[in-house]
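2024-03-11 09:14:02 DEBUG pipeline.ingest accepted 1 chain
2024-03-11 09:14:02 DEBUG pipeline.ingest length=89
2024-03-11 09:14:03 DEBUG pipeline.predict start
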Amino acid sequence: MANNQSTEKRIRQDVKRRERNRSARSEMRKSIKQLRGAVVAGDAQAAQELLPGTLSLVDSTARKSIIHRNMAARTKSRLARAVRALSDS
């Protein structure tokens, strides 16, 4: 248990940050899942509409260091490639 004020404050801050990070990561994952669902369903128009917002969420999550920037780049690349393949066929 915390023995001094600074440790107690650090614990409070960690709890807040953890919740904020979990929320942001969850929102990003939901958006990705929704976009992948549209791709699997073959709905090119819906996928095109969802892509910019999803990429933006991935970028902002990486900018806040919630996910690694390489993971963000990889995720964005895979999503864009899937949507492009869907609209080409």
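2024-03-11 09:14:41 DEBUG pipeline.report The chain has one domain: 5-88.
2024-03-11 09:14:41 DEBUG pipeline.predict end
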